[in-house]
Design brief:
There is one protein chain. It is built from six helices and eleven strands. By secondary structure, the protein is α+β, with helices and mostly antiparallel strands. The chain folds into two domains: 63 residues, Orthogonal Bundle (434 Repressor (Amino-terminal Domain)), CATH 1.10.260; 137 residues, Umud Fragment, subunit A. The strands form three sheets. Strands 5-6-11-7-8-9-10 form a seven-stranded antiparallel beta sheet, with helices on one face. Helix 2 packs across helix 4. The longest helix has 13 residues. The chain is globular, with a radius of gyration of 17 Å.
Length: 224
C-alpha cells in the first residue's frame, strides 16, 4: 500500500534539517521538545505542530513559523547551511533541491520541475550544467546515503555501471513519474538498480525509464 506523500510542511522541515546538518533527535532537543518529537512530526499523516512546539521548531531550524507553515517569508535560503563544508561552496551560487518521497515502489520518491528549496553549489561541481540536489528521505541506500543527506546530481555526466544514480521512471501511469536512487548494475532492455537496505536489485523495463542521472561522488563535490 502506498504511503501518503509528505506534506509541504514536512518537506520544508526535512530540507532545513538537511541544510543545517542536524539529526531528527538534535532538532527535537534544540527545539526544547522530546527526542522523538520531530521524527513523529515527519511521519505520514502527522498533523501540524502549534504554539510553543512550532515556535521551538522554527528557532531550532533558524527560520520562521510562517515559512514552515506556508513557505513564505524567505526562510528557505541556505545562509545557515552546514551540509556542505564552507570551503567547498561556490560563493553566491545555489542549486535547486527537487524531491518528495514514497511512491509505489519501496524506496521511490518523486522529482519536481519546481524546487522545494536551495542548496549551496559545491566548488567541485561549478563546471557542470544543470546540477540539482535531492534530499535523501528514506533509508534504502543506508549507510551510503542517509535520510537527511543532500546529494548533488550531474545530468551532463553519462552514468557508468556501478555509479550511484537517480532513475526516473513511470511504473504506474495513474501514479505518475517516480524516481529511485541506487547503484546502476544493468542498462539495457532492463535497467537494474542495486539497493543496500535491504540488499537486492530492482529491475525497471527500459520503456518505463524517462532518464538516468548520475549522483556526484564525494571527490567530485570536493573538486579532487
Amino acid at each position: 500500500m502506498d504511503q501518503p506523500l509528505p506534506s509541504d510542511f514536512q518537506m520544508r522541515v526535512r530540507t532545513r534539517i538537511a541544510e543545517l546538518g542536524l539529526s531528527y533527535r538534535a532538532a527535537s532537543l534544540e527545539a526544547g521538545l522530546s527526542p522523538e518529537a520531530v521524527g513523529k512530526m515527519l511521519k505520514p499523516g502527522a498533523g501540524l505542530p502549534r504554539g510553543n512546539n512550532l515556535a521551538g521548531l522554527a528557532r531550532a531550524l533558524k527560520t520562521t513559523e510562517q515559512w514552515l507553515l506556508t513557505g513564505e517569508d524567505g526562510g528557505s535560503k541556505s545562509d545557515a547551511a552546514q551540509s556542505v563544508p564552507g570551503e567547498l561552496i561556490y560563493a553566491d551560487h545555489e542549486v535547486e533541491i527537487k524531491a518528495v518521497a514514497a511512491g509505489s515502489y519501496a524506496g521511490a520518491f518523486q522529482l519536481f520541475d519546481n524546487s522545494i528549496g536551495h542548496a549551496p553549489l559545491p566548488r567541485g561541481l561549478r563546471r557542470h550544467k544543470g546540477v540539482y540536489a535531492i534530499v535523501i528521505i528514506n533509508d534504502s541506500m543506508f549507510p551510503e546515503h542517509k535520510p537527511g543527506d543532500i546529494r548533488f546530481v550531474t545530468p551532463n555526466v553519462k552514468p557508468k555501471i556501478g555509479d550511484s544514480v537517480v532513475v526516473e521512471f513511470e511504473h504506474d501511469p495513474d501514479h505518475g513519474p517516480e524516481a529511485m536512487i541506487g547503484h546502476l548494475r544493468l542498462n539495457g532492455p532492463v535497467v537494474r538498480i542495486g539497493k543496500l537496505n535491504p540488499p537486492g536489485d530492482v529491475d525497471i523495463p527500459a520503456n518505463q525509464v524517462r532518464r538516468i542521472h548520475r549522483i556526484a561522488s564525494g571527490n567530485e563535490v570536493a573538486g579532487v
